[in-house]
Design brief:
Chain lengths: ~160, ~160
DNA sequence: TATTGTTATACTCTATAACTATA
DNA sequence: TATAGTTATAGAGTATAACAATA
């Protein structure tokens, strides 16, 4: 959450008789960027996850696989930094991907502490439908944001860069 | 997540020697609205939570208290709908708030299955610093989005409404 | 039959701390 | 001393299913 996170009042229904029969009122939060951000992200995530949810392909894996795909040979710590998670969170993630033959770990030849990561052929193959799904999902988002897409993304990136 | 979610490559550092010494490359995701949304929300959430994190004031409570504040007398199911969580997730949430004397549960007089919720005086008092903190956080966000705030929020709301 | 709220239960994601092996 | 990765562990947060009470 950013300003924490109730959902859009649009879904509110079946109010108690004790309460006025209007929609849920989120007023003071309505003009909060952080709140709108949270609600939009939550909705987008759920819409995406709903269809990705193929038992063996956890949605959280997509991000990691994408980073590895684009940065073959990176280490686990590199990955942990790029997805903003602790390295101890990366270990089970990579183990799951390795167990399924999607990621290969090779010891670094120059630093024996390090393991380098790359997708296997199976990993690359498994990434394709995920990427296709993400692109389809994003086409829907494109349809929603329309011709303001570039400015919208620019603002989102600005927020990510500067709020920290 | 929407397009799932690595963080901005800006933090990437300490690359393995096996890999070119450039920043992590997230290319194919860079133009994804869903991805940018996730990264921005994650950054905003962390920045917010970092300072809200006062032992007894869990960040997740803010949303619920805000909804109750704005809709006194609502039921738990109403609340669960408005924050898009299952009613079974609301039970422990409300119990925590009630145990601390922040929320009061009253049996509905017209439907004996229902409990109506309202903030206690202590709850209203506890909400103030949270709200103040959220407003301060949002002032930072305002500074980042600048004069595009209205359009930005409008787009975020549009996404939330239409992606479902 | 349907709804409200609770409970039991389990799963995911994440982090902290302590450890090892290297550097 | 510092870093890479693992393990043990714990804590949020959430959901599903079954249940009792009530509608």
């Amino acid at each position: 959450m950013s300003a924490a996170g109730p959902q859009p009042p649009g879904r509110a229904a079946g109010r108690a008789p004790e309460q006025a029969d209007t929609e849920l009122n989120l007023c003071p939060l309505d003009d909060f960027v952080g709140f709108a951000l949270r609600v939009a992200q939550d909705a987008s995530f759920r819409a995406f996850a709903k269809t990705t949810d193929r038992a063996d392909l956890k949605p959280g894996w997509f991000a990691a696989m994408m980073v590895i795909h684009n940065n073959p040979g990176l280490t686990q710590v590199d990955l942990s930094r790029s997805i903003a998670r602790d390295k101890s969170s990366v270990t089970p993630l990579i183990q799951g991907l390795e167990r399924r033959g999607l990621v290969e770990r090779r010891p670094s030849r120059t630093d024996r502490r390090r393991m380098t990561l790359r997708l296997t052929a199976a990993g690359e193959a498994a990434l394709q439908p995920l990427l296709a799904h993400a692109m389809e999902h994003d086409r829907k988002l494109d349809g929603i944001v329309g011709d303001q897409k570039a400015a919208f993304i620019a603002l989102l990136k600005k927020v990510a860069d500067e709020i920290a």
